Amino acid sequence: MRHFLDFEKPIAALEGKIQELRHLGSDSGLNIADEIGKLQSRIDKELKQTYTKLGPWQKVQVARHPERPKLVQIIDQLFTEFTELSGDRNFKEDFAIIGGLARFRGRPVIIMGTEKGSTTEERIKRNFGMVRPEGYRKAIRLMQLADQFGLPVISFVDTAGAYPGRGAEERGQAEAIARSIQACLNLKTPLISAIIGEGGSGGAIALATGNKVIMFEHAVYSVISPEGCASILWRSSDKAETASEALRLTAADMMQLGIIDQIVDEPVGGAHRDVAAALLNMSDAIEQELVALDALSPGELRANRRDKYVAMGEKSLA
Questions:
Q1: How far is CA 258 from CA 17, 60, 77, 267, 311, in A?
Q2: What is the pTM of this model?
């Protein structure tokens, strides 16, 4: 059964009518194809109108949609010969990050990213995509491996933020995030980062300090969640919608601010309505950015990345 967001209620009602007609047609033998076709046309029109004018808060809801593409689907559909590498060789495995060796369109690469999980059991196992220090240290190990063998790195981000629990803080959460950002900056191979859902706080930046950062059309990227921002500024999460507007967290905002390099189109109605089409667009975007970076030497790749983020800092201070 499809999950509908609050602003999709008119669409949900129309799809409900289609289901009723199909049930009626199977029981009575009536020809209802024409009526279903008319309803489907109304749904397509409503979807296009609705998703063309989404506000920031609605974009946040779409980015969090439980049926959006997950990293496990991306690995299955976009990569071959995936060999997962586990553990940080220091404390333990963190299931919130998946990473390893794979081939992307025949090219050997290192992939890594956050995974929220699809079922309740998976979400608990993967800590809802909130990474602990050992997860970031695993990411550092993967990047060091990429440097050793000269492999491009492709990272995928979908997290509300790093895990803020006591144990994570005791094991050096801030230091692990900082070291992961440092590892991104020090890479002498191409690093393509993709924001596929939520890009939350330092937990996202730790994996997304890339030469090129691409972002799904309805993904969000911000220094803090709207609820967290509202709790700090207004002492109430009820102001989350207002906070989302102030944070400028949409893909269009990120492009305008120079934070990302490319917006990846989603099918009408969001990536969750046609995962295969959305991932094909993502695959083409990754290929385009990788090809563009092929001409750069290891030193140029590193300098390119560092200059990119220094420029962002200088722009914010201007």
A1: 44, 20, 30, 24, 10
A2: 0.91
